[in-house]
Amino acid sequence: MCGLALTGLVATTAAGPVQDRPAPTEASVASAATDPHCPPGTVPVPSAERRVAGPDTGTTTHEGTEVTPEQAAEYEGELRRAMVRLRGQEEGAAPPYTVPVVVHVISASDGSGQVSDERVDDQVDVLNRAYRGDYAQGSEGTDTGFRFELSEVTRTENDTWFRRFGEQRDTIRARLHQGGPETLNIYTADLGSGLLGFSTFPQDQADAPEQDGVAIAHDTLPGGDRDRFNEGHTGTHEVGHWLGLFHTFQNGCQSPGDYVDDTPYEREAASGCPVGRDSCPEREGKDPVTNFMNYSDDACMTHFTPGQAERMVAHWAAFRGGDALA
Question: Which of 31, 53, 100, 112 could serve as 108's disulfide partner, Cβ 3.0–4.6 Å?
Fold first, then answer.
């Protein structure tokens, strides 16, 4: 993982919250110069708990890493072109939408990863509450119009799949995936140290429909034992990517940010719950620390914005919603 070399902090361009990390050393800067995975001006960053969006089709980056500014711009271009094609079909793009959900529980022979039906139900309930705006405080946030309905739970006992999901994900998803672009496939397994979850984007669905979906660490579902991340909002966050949202800190303090007008610019991901932080003082507004598309602790996350809701609706109409895909 790589990060921008800045005075006194590290701002990610790959994956991972970097709050309270030391400034890069001369040795790390020198290392970045010879690391083919780190672009110029960046340094290697140690791994940390992270929720990422990971396109892995064509020339895009592998899942488990962040979206680069160039990739974000490509996705935005695809969205704009799709919306031009849909012009005049606005009536069909109005929420609410009910999203069928298939949860694939992958576990080991020793019982690790066995997520109960109750916890699966609780996860779907968290999604509904989050996307309905129930966690929002005061006037923040909005009802996005998305609702989630559990269709099926599949259970697979496979030690290799459970413990090496990242290496096996293409095979796993090709065998287990159900439904079309409108169906949310969620896979639970051991994703490895520091990785909470990852997702595909709507724009990738047509090229690799069997790979479409969200993976989340089994211990992040409600009632899990992942400290600070066991209330189900890893699922909330990753479904946001599945519906087209970038991280709130996409592009840092540089325009166009996360392509949403009502989320303030943010230099790097939040860690913990640093409410009141202002990492882009030259830009209007404090950091969106409590937004679901940040890296804050689950207990800190409360809402999506109206602009994010509009963006999810646009992606649904363009890439996932019924007649729009004909």
Answer: 112
